[in-house]
Amino acid sequence: MNRTAMRASQKDFENAMNQVKLLKKDPGNEVKLKLYALYKQATEGPCNMPKPGVFDLISKAKWDAWNALGSLPKEAARQNYVDLVSSLSPSLESSSQVEPGTDRKSTGFETLVVTSEDGITKIMFNRPTKKNAINTEMYHEIMRALKAASKDDSIITVLTGNGDYYSSGNDLTNFTDIPPGGVEEKAKNNAVLLREFVGCFIDFPKPLIAVVNGPAVGISVTLLGLFDAVYASDRATFHTPFSHLGQSPEGCSSYTFPKIMSPAKATEMLIFGKKLTAGEACAQGLVTEVFPDSTFQKEVWTRLKAFAKLPPNAVRISKEVIRKREREKLHAVNAEECNVLQGRWLSDECTNAVVNFLSRKSKL
Ligand SMILES: CCCCCCCCCCC/C=C/C(=O)SCCNC(=O)CCNC(=O)[C@H](O)C(C)(C)COP(=O)(O)OP(=O)(O)OC[C@H]1O[C@@H](n2cnc3c(N)ncnc32)[C@H](O)[C@@H]1OP(=O)(O)O
């Protein structure tokens, strides 16, 4: 996509309008008014209709909602409309996605959709317009969702992405808000948080499955080495451009990747930033199995539902036996990687790469 087409396209907008018609639940009057107002603003621009009389309650409420948008540009209204619809119907964002169900949907997440049904807790990254980049809020919410999933009655936990990307990795704007203590303090705090974040994956007590629906970048790739199975659409790619970003590997990948795929293949990915196709990642052992995108969701969820019918205690104990002998080593690797990264974040190489991305001079 080029930079001028970054905002929601006319096609995204039309898809969103269709999705509204497919909503299973009435979103309520407040949301409907918001949708109406954004639609009018996106298609006609600022409200210039005469104000309806006080007794025409419905028309007046619609007019008020539209008028409240003031001079919001059409393009921004279109984007807000798409975002609002996607927050109402995340499962519809990508037509190829089949939900395991929405029986129990956890609320209280801004950046995720968390559902639990059929013995499966599904944690879905839900910032599709940002390619599911992981901002600070999402890091915290993933930790919270994993902690809840470790205690709920599900048998397995699944991570996946909403929209066309699995995740574009760390949100590079995470580097921009500098606290009063300066960049050193920021780097130190981030290293502590990153260690805690990766620690949640190391210690997760149930089988953790990635359903990689599209391209994956950076930390969303490295973490896969800590998952118990990785199913990928043939649209997925796997890219860890750490050197390009002046950074170094995390997510325990400096340990797991050489073990999984051989030291030389790990070097190609982690140091030289070689992007793998799903087929290549499968041949290297990072991905368990690749499916054609057209049948990906159906085939994978059918399989996962069968896994989730296995006896819970046996599943949990087996995971513990497998993870046990590696846990201490993984925590040590995680600590060291975070320590090294803390220094990298203060380097000119890293600063320049982030500035270049944010000033639109570069992308992967
Ligand atoms: C517990 C708290 C811990 C805090 C710890 C913080 C630090 C932890 C760091 C851990 C180390 C992690 C390392 C990594 O993950 S490295 C990988 C970082 N990712 C990237 O470099 C990807 C950058 N993105 C791109 O190159 C392109 O966007 C991409 C190729 C992914 C897609 O290109 P395309 O042209 O298809 O789409 P757009 O570029 O138009 O993207 C759409 C919008 O999404 C925004 N976007 C996408 N990815 C990111 C990102 N990673 N960070 C920020 N924003 C992103 C993009 O800017 C567009 O937004 P706008 O529409 O608003 O312009």
From TrEMBL:
Gene3D superfamilies: 1.20.80.10, 2-enoyl-CoA Hydratase, Chain A, domain 1, Lyase 2-enoyl-coa Hydratase, Chain A, domain 2
EC numbers on record: 5.3.3.8
One MF annotation (Gene Ontology) recorded for this entry: delta(3)-delta(2)-enoyl-CoA isomerase activity
Matching InterPro entries: Acyl-CoA-binding_prot_CS, Acyl-CoA-binding_protein, Acyl-CoA-binding_sf, ClpP/crotonase-like_dom_sf, ECH/Chromodomain_protein, Enoyl-CoA_hydra/iso, Enoyl-CoA_hydra_C, FERM/acyl-CoA-bd_prot_sf
Keyword annotations from UniProtKB, A to Z: Acetylation, Isomerase, Mitochondrion, Peroxisome, Phosphoprotein, Transit peptide
GO cellular component, one term: mitochondrion
Annotated compartments: Mitochondrion; Peroxisome matrix
Residues annotated as domain ACB: 9-94
Pathway(s) it belongs to: Lipid metabolism; fatty acid beta-oxidation
Domain of life: Eukaryota
Reaction catalyzed: (2E)-tetradecenoyl-CoA = (3Z)-tetradecenoyl-CoA; a (3E)-enoyl-CoA = a 4-saturated (2E)-enoyl-CoA; (3E)-nonenoyl-CoA = (2E)-nonenoyl-CoA; (3E)-octenoyl-CoA = (2E)-octenoyl-CoA
Job description of the protein: Able to isomerize both 3-cis and 3-trans double bonds into the 2-trans form in a range of enoyl-CoA species. Has a preference for 3-trans substrates.
Family: In the C-terminal section; belongs to the enoyl-CoA hydratase/isomerase family.
Official protein name in the record: Enoyl-CoA delta isomerase 2
GN (gene name): ECI2
